[in-house]
Design brief:
single chain; 146 residues; alpha+beta; Rossmann fold; 2 domains; four-stranded mixed sheet; 4 helices; elongated
Amino acid sequence: MDAVQLEFPDAAFDTVLCVESAFHFTTREQFLREACRVLKPGGLLVLSDILGWASRSKRANVVKNPAAYAALLARAGFENLQVLDATEAATRSCARRLARWPGVEWRAGRLRFPEFVRAWLGAQAYALFMRLTQRYYVLAAAQKPA
């Protein structure tokens, strides 16, 4: 099923939940309009989304920052908007913890040296990937007008 053309009738759901998926859809705006369509009046959209750098996304799917995300939700027909920048709490702190994990396991005796080296290299590479590709991590809630 295509998230921008759902096979559900209008006003079918009380809640739409989207976790770290909207950046994969054709465009976020199409998805948000479709989410609004399938929500009952007063229904709630709750989502988390990763806003990457413009060079990595289709131009039509680029959202620059949390304020632009709120504007996008409003254009899609939502009200009572709450958009939080959770980048530090979610992405950056996760990258730091991930980068430290192999050392913790090594000191606890749960990894042998070859496993430690592989885990450390993998964790460092993934932490770098997260820092380079994820500009913002947003949490949002919005309501379809009643």
